[in-house]
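Posting for a labmate who doesn't have an account.
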Amino acid sequence: MRKLLLSTTVATSLLCSPLHIALENLYNLYYIHTSSLLNSTLGDLRDHRYSDSLWLRGSFSQLSSIYNSTLKVAQGEVGYDHAFVPPVGQNFLGVNFEYSYSWLDSPKNTTNVFGVAVYNTYLAPSRFYIDTRVKYLYLSPSYSTLSSSASHLFVGSLELGWKFVYSYGFFLQPTAKVSAGYGSEITFYDKTSTLHTPYSIPLFYQVGSYMGFEFAKRADISLGIFYDGDQVFASSTLDKTTLKERANSRLTLSLQSNILATQNFRIYFGGKTSFFGESRLEYSANLGMRFLLGRDYAKVYKRPSTPQNPRTFASVQRNLLYEAEQSRLRVQERTHLKPQELEEQYTIQSNRNDKKVEDEIKYANRQRYLREKSLWKNIEVNEQNYANRTDGRIETRSINLIRDYNKREIERKYGVQQ
């Protein structure tokens, strides 16, 4: 029993040691630099009409862990992308640079992170999108009581999402993202102990959905709820004792907004927080701007005013046949006739001079006249009502005479009511 308590005490002290907390700090920086979704990184790319864009983004975050440590991170990003117009949808290929400065519990324990990323984002007309990224991070920690080596991280990510817009501008946007990478060797040591990790394989994932409103295609606001997790596979040793792998999951709430300020300028901002987990995000706020530059695709690819092909007899004939066929289809849709019945109608129209057809037309006109006379209008009564339209008795303020006059006027216009 004493051995069990002793081993438990040693494991707890190792996990709470400054060396282990410094390692967790690097893992949290991995998370900060890979957890941003497309909506908060690049903003909303809908109605993007220009070939080039320059964007800027800044954020500030604070994380806390169960080891009573607090990490504060100030991060800045700048990026450029070029928009292509494939046969369907739009494609954005770009590169961005990022830098973050963080301090752990004290301004003396700092870490500088430099990063570069290449990304490609495809947007379909149905508002489905695919975002892929490859990123490299260089982490250089500096602590007051510890010594450490710089580390490198290579990570790739894939994000999928689909925006469904309903009535009154309400929309849902399910989103899923997964990231995986490879981290180089990490070593921390003080006067008595050494923590060594030969390599690490971090895995990050987010699954959830945004819900919000669009305001006249000029702005939107959305609330996101995500299951957010990360797991780092590593073989870490501290004082010849193997440390457990990091496995962390949390519930994240995100609030984002996009504003299309002008035709060439957009602004987006938001914040998020998380609950549960060994390491959780207390708060994070971000602000971004996008400047649209280059060519306007709406003007470059507009339809030319002059025809591309010369006007020939064959082309005119094909055009007339096409318009005739479209006219036939419109008549068929409007009258709901079967193709055979529609063909009979056209045959009758083309043989209007035939004696039998003339008799049928006369009979149809007679039947229509009888229907109108019996159901809709009585010509003689209408004429009588019209002749009495200047009856002087209507000048009297008798309600009965006014009612009779209104009744006659209705009958004059619409006939005797059956």
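Reply:
Got it, the structure tokens are right above this. Confidence is low (pLDDT under 50) at residues 1-13.
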